[in-house]
Every structure is written in structure tokens, then in C-alpha cells.
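Hi V.,

You were right to ask for the full record rather than a summary. Here it is.
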Amino acid sequence: FQGKLQRVLQEGPAWGVHFLLMWTGPAIIQSQLGMSGLSAFDGCVLLYGSQEIARQIVGPMSSWNGQSRRGLYRDSASGGDAAKLIPYASPSARTVSRLLGGGDVRV
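Predicted structure:
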């Protein structure tokens, strides 16, 4: 199974097939993808976890601590450092009102 999955993950983008996958930890990634793990991917995003998990996935110099509503993105293809990001956040009532064409609202 691992070999077939690795092949699909590695060759898929050339055929226009891209993947968004989720695992609950590094041990599961390794058990399903083998020792090469995330090498088939050009990037990965950590949305939750600890500094220990970030170091296992991103590298030993990672200083990410898994804070709420934050992520850590690593672009393997560029070889650059991992970057912290805000992938999503609930919009405020004021933002929703503006988007819907209303005026400012008090909350």
C-alpha cells in the first residue's frame, strides 16, 4: 500500500491531481507513507500540535508552539524557512456587516 500511495502522491501533480491530506501525528504519517514521509509533498501546514511535533515535521530548529488559530507552513520545494500564518479566523460582526453592505454595527 505504501509504495502505491507514494507513487500516486509523487506522480499525481503531473496529471493535474493534487492532494490535501490530514494526519493526527508524525507516527501515523510514517506508518502510512513509510520512512520518506512527507518528501512527496512540496509543502505542509501544521494547524495544531506542539513544538515537539513541529520539530519532527518541519525540522529541529522549529519554534512553533501550536497557538490557537495559527498555522505553520513549510514550502519544501523552495527550501526556505517555515512561516507562521493565520489560515482562518471568525469574522467580527463589523466585518460581516461591511461585507453585506451595511454600516458599522455595535457589538
